[in-house]
Amino acid sequence: MTPVRLVAAVRGAVALSLFWVPPACAQGHGPVYGLSTPTLGRGGWSLDTALMGRFVDDEEAIMMRPMVSYGLTEDVQISASIPVRLDTGQGFSAVRGLTRMPMTSDAQLMLGWRFHRNAVSVGARWESTAWVAFEYPTDDIRAAVEPTPGLFGAAVTGYASRSFYAWVGAAYRRYLAPADEGEARLGNMSMASLVVGYRPPAFRKDYPHADWRAFLELVGEWMGENTVNGADQVDTGGRQVFLGLTVLGLYGSWGVSGGPAVPVYQRTNGDPLRERLRFAVNFTLWF
Q1: Which of 11, 105, 171, 240 makes the best surface tag, with the fewest CB within 10 Å?
Q2: pTM for the full predicted model
Q3: Rounded to an integer, what distance in angstroms lies between the CA atom of residue 196 and that of residue 187?
Q4: CB count, 10 Å around CB of 269?
Q5: DSSP state for residue 19 in the 8-state scheme
Q6: Per-residue pLDDT tens for 58-77?
Q7: What DSSP string describes 107-173?
Q8: CB under 8 Å to 278, separation ≥6 — which residues?
Q9: Quick check: helix, strand or coil at residue 178?
């Protein structure tokens, strides 16, 4: 290749990277804390980099998680994420964090299948997606218990248009039994979420205009009791509900989302630490 052609090819690649606008899917499609349905298009890649934190009484836990996703087909997506612990609190319950990432020290491999999709009108669709994941702990102790690998499964359905969004879903995570029956096991967790979103008229224009959306996210968590020597520990586990107000911004092949979530209901067994606030910020690149 001649130098002139090489320069032309480089210029073309740069222009393509600046003006190519892939579908806004994956974690970066929003919402942050609740379950949602979108998957990447066939052959599409995305890179998410999330910063998340929890404030429980006078302690905090802060973590980063990079996640790489790939669209196997238009409706099947695979993702992998790993934790990068920045500040680890002691005795925290194991919960989900972002929509598709745990707020725990687990490496995760996730598969999503959008098994139902129906266009209800121009620019609007009703769809449903199932998510399954395998999670492997990278820490030795969690809430005074040695963690074991776990399985995660979720199902979510919802409506999306150019102006309004609504998703409802449920999930369940189960920790596998330890090799030694006498060892302790973390309690399983159930989760349900309801998300509504709105895209103001000023942001319904096509690229190169910016795209901003706001979400109201309600997330309920039911934490099971830890088990020691086959007996449930009655001073562990409980129930809590969080309300999050988040935003999503999209521009070209970039996306940013985030916002706080506060407890609106907490009922925990025994006298464990009480959570005061969660936050998350996620940056996404599609390529």
Answers
A1: 11
A2: 0.85
A3: 30
A4: 16
A5: H
A6: 788 899 999 999 999 999 99
A7: EEEEEEEEEEEEEEETTEEEEEEEEEEEEEE--S-BTTB----EEEEEEEEEEE-SSEEEEEEEEEE
A8: 33, 52, 53, 54, 55, 97, 103, 242, 244, 260, 261, 262
A9: coil
